[in-house]
Amino acid sequence: MDLKKSPFIPNDKIPKGGFSFAEFHGSGTGLFFSIKKVLFSEKSTFQEIQILETEEYGRMLILDGAVQTTERDEFIYHEMLVHVPMLSHPDPRKILVIGGGDGGCVREILKHKSVEKLTMVEIDKLVVDCSKKYLPGISSKLNHPKLDLCIEDAVEFVKGRSSNFDVIIVDSTDPVGFASPLTTESFFRSAKKILKENGIYAAQTQGPFFESKSMSVISKRLKKIFPLTSFYLANTPTYPGGIWSFALSYKNSKNDFKITPRILKRKDLKYYSQEIHNASFALPPYVKKILGEK
Amino acid sequence: MDLKKSPFIPNDKIPKGGFSFAEFHGSGTGLFFSIKKVLFSEKSTFQEIQILETEEYGRMLILDGAVQTTERDEFIYHEMLVHVPMLSHPDPRKILVIGGGDGGCVREILKHKSVEKLTMVEIDKLVVDCSKKYLPGISSKLNHPKLDLCIEDAVEFVKGRSSNFDVIIVDSTDPVGFASPLTTESFFRSAKKILKENGIYAAQTQGPFFESKSMSVISKRLKKIFPLTSFYLANTPTYPGGIWSFALSYKNSKNDFKITPRILKRKDLKYYSQEIHNASFALPPYVKKILGEK
Question: Could you tell me the pTM of the whole model?
């Protein structure tokens, strides 16, 4: 990626030689970020990886031109992707994270004392390595003794394992290219199989404002494979539309995520709370329509 | 405003002569919109007014360089600013809108059958006129017989009137320049006076991600003047951070907005629902901190 060409646009408001990174959402609209410094820019086997020092959002991880996480607002996505499923489960001990190479999910999961073993399956070692080096606040627990880090394709990993996991959390990139198999019925079936009887599957499921088609497709597939699936929302400033959706699926329909979840008593949560947990399942009519719900 | 200079940035993705409008949020970051056509661009006595035809968001109203409303996402802001206070009141008959020249609030308020008289006090006639001409979907009810439209400074309007209103809704621009008197203690005191005993005051109160200082100041002032004030949130894609806050204040502390509100049965609501109404009062810890709440 040529950092001086579009989507990188010149910006006369920042020092000489500076530029902005622009991410397009929909047609001709999007977010721009003034860049102070390019910290890392390489192509791995799977994708282009950049870590940029932005003026406003701190350091930012970009994969194939799409903003993945920023130091300033990552807490929202990671807290909501992790604590909603973890606290919906009565006793989560064995956890599987798929993707999540920056380490944000691992950091949040390890806030739960019940966790005995945490397996993370990330396809791209370079994402892990440069997150460790350049995003220390996000990747802080990637060397934790409870973590078993597997550099492997998750699609292969989930095949033929035994039903061993209490919670599976999928922290993947957009469902295009090498990440697209993570939203197929076949993958959902495999994931369901390796969950214990009262297991929970959670995943980021794109934003309703710009990725409604993708959300709609993923929703149909999840609902076909899992007996009980519900969606929840969070406000994510650096994702398209400032809103992001997540799915929570149960292996066993006797479970009910509408019950008040357990409480996590921590003073370092900035977005998640029990109140937010319950409120996040309230979906505006326009989002229900996308999901085919009433 | 020179439309070919910053904050308007050249954009090579749109046809020759095209450009993008960029709105800065915080330092060096923001949203950009590809512009197909400039429909209106004039300076009124109070502000610069533009109506632009965007590629993705439909028509957009810009006042002094700040995005006010777009055809594509205005439903979120207008439904939430209007229906939360209207349905928190047991019988809203006489309503006052301050600002709101585009007509979005008027359109939503008139969905409530109880309304007998609706007074709108807008300082800038040119905003009303060009909204009528260029934003027909938003301004559609600005000629309604129940509407009394006063082109006047709201600060003067509220002084010395009798206690006549059930609900006051403030749909103002950012609290800078000529709109800043609308967030003073003195204005809140005047507004409280002209509310009936069980009256409700509602206002947009900026976003928590980029305008936290402003929110914090407004919150303190509202809580000083009104005996009961609560804040609620909505996801607003074209406002900074994709999240916006609103205040709901009661003249009489015996009222309680935590009760389930009345229901508005309409099929044309795309963001508001009773579920969303209740959920919108759940505030993430980082927002509570801004508001000095626990």
Answer: 0.94
